[in-house]
Task: structure prediction
Amino acid sequence: MRGIASKSQLRMSFLRYALVTVPLVVLLGTLSGRLAGSGYGNPWFDALAKPSFMPPGWAFGVAWTILYALLGIVLAMILHARGARGRGLVLALFLAQLALNYAWSPLFFAFHQTLPALLVILAMIGLSAAAAALLWWVRKAASLLMLPYLAWLCFAAALTFEILRLNPGGAPALAPGGSSSDIIDET
Result:
């Protein structure tokens, strides 16, 4: 029997996608950050000069958990929009920016590459803005759900830029196996 799905069937189809995409996006984001040693407690990061508008460490965990959940919902909406014109391009842009997102923490926190990290976050902003704009024609609600993420990416780019500006030679060198209290004076 072939027929049009009812609204409840469509809703359940979306929920099935969301039950996979939301935890997956949150989990991958959490793993990326944890494996990279992101945030306070990372000796290299702790030794950096930080901008005055740097939020407390707990704010990053809260913000990223919410943002990754929203991104999981957006991904579910994109996947659910089968047959929508432009869906393939939107999906490609979304997945590309998400891959860059997951690469940012290792690049910045593990490899201490502040300038490449800034370039990556700028690329994330461009890809995310393009995805959000094209999403308007696929799923308006998904496009709107991208706005808090874009706002946070702009804020994160400003933080990254300021950290780069305040630490032109990178963070002070640490003694091998040391902590931020074991900074070596290289002057």
Notes: The domain at 7-179 is CATH 1.20.1260.100 (Ferritin). The longest helix spans residues 7-36. Confidence is low (pLDDT under 50) at residues 183-187.
